[in-house]
Design brief:
There is one protein chain. The protein has 409 residues and is mainly alpha-helical. It folds into two domains: 221 residues, no CATH class; 172 residues, no CATH class. It is 69% helix and 0% strand. It has 20 helices and no strands. The protein starts with 7 loop residues before the first helix and ends in a 6-residue tail after the last helix. The model has no long low-confidence stretch (mean pLDDT 90).
């Protein structure tokens, strides 16, 4: 049997994408558009210089990223070299995504999967996190390693014993949470998956191991209680609409390609009632919506204000987001659980798009149980169209980083 190799075109695209990160490093670009990553790097630099000296200004974050960056800085003793090294660390991340995709989609051509994995290079949050060493990169690195072992665990179906893959899934997921707390919601989802797949004895062992890995976090909270002081609020109408709109940004191109080009999806009459109910829900929520669109909120809320000076596009994309998430939830109870976790656990005064990027794309193709991802990846044209969408997104983000449209609306 002939072993498929990564073709020269895909290798060239990977090389060009890698070089583009070094160009952003050279010109000090923050492609996320708002300058937030550059500012975060500068304001948290004292934690890199002295990770053990948590000031009250920064102690709402778990410090693992700053410990690791601090070790590198201690060795090289140069801020620019540290930034350069973080770009090198970021380069294998798309390949890690590819390795995970290979486990999940065994019948898809390897070159399709490799090409698709390069989508991470087109995400502004990833690029800025790499150029301005950010928890985004450290967190997604650990997360993908955890997903690699989780998918191997699911693939082996060895649910009657506590094996190496299960242990490594928990270990790297713990490291992910200690880097970015938002991944705790994904850890919670994995625990639900463990509960439904493992027998009682092995699940108790799993809970015990998770508890052991939680001990450092508990100690950190005792030393720095403000870690628990997140910006969570109870204005659910704000967070639900914002979360749905942000998630729609990633779901719209995915389903549009399947609908218009693949003809794989049709709007059924029985979808009309859920769509009407979702629309009514968004209309009601909009009456009580009060969110500072200058601070996060996602791509569509900014676009809506820039084009029409209102929230009409934002509300429309919230409706689409809710409906598409509902559509995915019909395929599996686990999809429904994950959807509810994504919508309800991120409830904050400010919700940034970077919270979901590239996390949600990884969840969509690795954890969400749907036949549509397999359909999508079979055709390389779909992948190129998907890349074109996100390349346009990256271009507008870079333009915004210079002209600051989103700050002047």
């Amino acid at each position: 049997m002939k072993i498929e190799k990564i073709n020269n075109l895909n290798i060239l695209i990977y090389f060009i994408c890698s070089i583009s990160l070094f160009l952003e490093f050279y010109f000090n670009i923050d492609s996320a558009g708002s300058g937030g990553f550059k500012t975060d790097f500068r304001t948290t630099w004292p934690l890199v210089e002295d990770p053990l000296n948590f000031s009250t200004k920064f102690d709402i974050k778990f410090p693992l990223h700053y410990y690791l960056a601090g070790i590198i800085y201690y060795i090289v003793n140069d801020k620019e070299i540290l930034r350069f090294i973080f770009i090198l660390i970021s380069l294998p991340i798309p390949y890690l995504f590819f390795l995970c995709l290979k486990i999940k989609f065994k019948t898809i051509k390897m070159n399709n999967l490799f090409l698709f994995s390069l989508i991470i290079f087109l995400l502004p949050s990833f690029r800025s996190g790499a150029v301005w060493p950010n928890t985004q990169i450290t967190g997604i690195f650990f997360f993908l390693v955890s997903m690699f072992y989780f998918l191997k665990w699911m693939d082996k179906k060895e649910f009657r014993n506590f094996n190496t893959e299960l242990f490594l899934t928990i270990l790297f997921m713990s490291l992910t949470v200690y880097t970015r707390q938002i991944y705790a919601m994904i850890f919670f989802y994995l625990m639900i998956v463990f509960y439904f797949n493992l027998n009682k004895k092995i699940f108790i062992q799993t809970v015990f191991v998770v508890g052991l890995f939680a001990v450092p976090g508990i100690l950190l909270v005792l030393v720095w209680p403000r870690i628990l002081e997140a910006t969570f609020i109870f204005k659910l109408q704000n967070s639900l609409l914002v979360n749905a709109s942000i998630l729609s940004f990633y779901l719209i191109p995915f389903f549009s390609i399947l609908f218009f080009f693949e003809k794989k999806i049709k709007f059924e009459k029985n979808n009309l009632l859920p769509l009407l109910l979702i629309t009514l829900f968004v209309v009601i929520c909009s009456k009580y919506f009060s969110y500072n669109y200058l601070m996060g909120g996602g791509y569509f809320i900014k676009l809506s204000k820039i084009l029409f000076d209102n929230f009409i596009i934002f509300y429309f994309t919230s409706i689409i987001g809710f409906f598409l998430l509902y559509y995915l939830s019909l395929e599996s109870k686990f999809n429904l659980i994950l959807t509810l976790i994504l919508l309800f656990t991120v409830s904050a005064y400010i919700i940034f798009m970077k919270y979901y990027e590239p996390m949600f794309l990884i969840l969509l193709f690795l954890l969400i149980k749907t036949k549509y991802t397999n359909m999508f990846l079979k055709n390389v044209k779909n992948i190129y169209l998907f890349h074109l969408y996100f390349f346009t997104y990256l271009g507008t983000a870079i333009i915004n980083s210079f002209l600051l449209f989103s700050k002047n609306i």
